[in-house]
Design brief:
By secondary structure, the protein is α+β, with helices and mostly antiparallel strands. The chain folds into 2 domains: 3-58, no CATH class; 75-152, Orthogonal Bundle (Arc Repressor Mutant, subunit A). The protein is 31% helix and 13% strand. The strands form 2 sheets. It has a 3-stranded antiparallel beta sheet with strand order 1-2-3, covered by helices on one side. A two-stranded parallel sheet has the order 4-5. A hairpin with a 6-residue loop joins strand 1 (3-6) and strand 2.
Length: 165
C-alpha cells in the first residue's frame, strides 16, 4: 500500500492510499519526512496531490479537499463521516446537532469521530461539545491540535483568543 510522510504545522503526518483512494491519515515520526519544499514527496500521483492540497490548507490557501477518500467503517460511521464533510471550513457543529442530522446519539457520533481514519480531510475537528466546549480529538496532540486546526480556520473556542501556529 503506497504511503508518504510529510511535515505539517501540527506535526509529521502520514497518508496511505489503496485502490486509487486515500484510506488513512495519521500522525507519526518518520525519518523519511522530507523538509518543507523538498522535491518528490509522494510515491503516487494521488499521494502527491494530497500532499499539495494539505500544504495549501495549512498555508491558508485552501478551504476543502478534492480527493478520493475510502475510509471504510460501519454504515453508521460512513454516515457520520459524510456529514462531517458537509461542515464548511471555518464553521463548527455540536455533537448533538450532528447526531440529529444522522439519526444517532451524540455519544455514537463522538465514537465515530474518534475512529475517523482520515482526520483533517474528514474534518472531525469541527465538531464541538455542548456550549462550544472543545470536546475531544483523537489526533496526536489531542485538544491542542484541535485548537490549532480550528484557529487555522478562524474559529476560536469559547474563552480563547485566536492564535495560529
Amino acid at each position: 500500500m503506497p504511503r508518504i510522510t510529510l511535515a505539517s504545522p501540527v506535526g509529521p503526518l502520514w497518508l496511505e492510499e489503496r485502490h486509487d483512494a486515500l484510506v488513512a491519515l495519521g500522525w507519526g515520526e518518520d525519518e523519511t519526512i522530507p523538509p518543507p519544499g523538498a522535491g518528490a514527496l509522494a510515491a503516487t500521483p494521488l499521494l502527491a496531490e494530497a500532499a499539495l492540497q494539505l500544504a495549501a490548507y495549512f498555508a491558508g490557501a485552501r478551504q476543502g479537499f478534492d480527493l478520493p477518500l475510502a475510509p471504510g467503517g460501519t454504515d453508521h460511521q460512513a454516515r457520520v463521516w459524510a456529514a462531517l464533510r458537509e461542515i464548511p471550513f471555518g464553521r463548527t457543529e455540536s455533537y448533538g446537532a450532528l447526531a440529529a442530522r444522522v439519526g444517532s446519539s451524540a455519544r455514537s457520533v463522538g465514537t465515530a469521530c474518534g475512529r475517523n481514519p482520515l482526520p483533517i480531510l474528514i474534518p472531525c475537528h469541527r465538531v464541538l461539545a455542548a456550549a462550544g466546549a472543545a470536546g475531544g480529538y483523537s489526533g496526536r496532540g489531542g485538544l491542542e491540535t484541535k485548537r490549532r486546526l480550528l484557529a487555522l480556520e478562524g474559529v476560536p473556542l469559547p474563552g480563547e483568543t485566536l492564535s495560529l501556529f
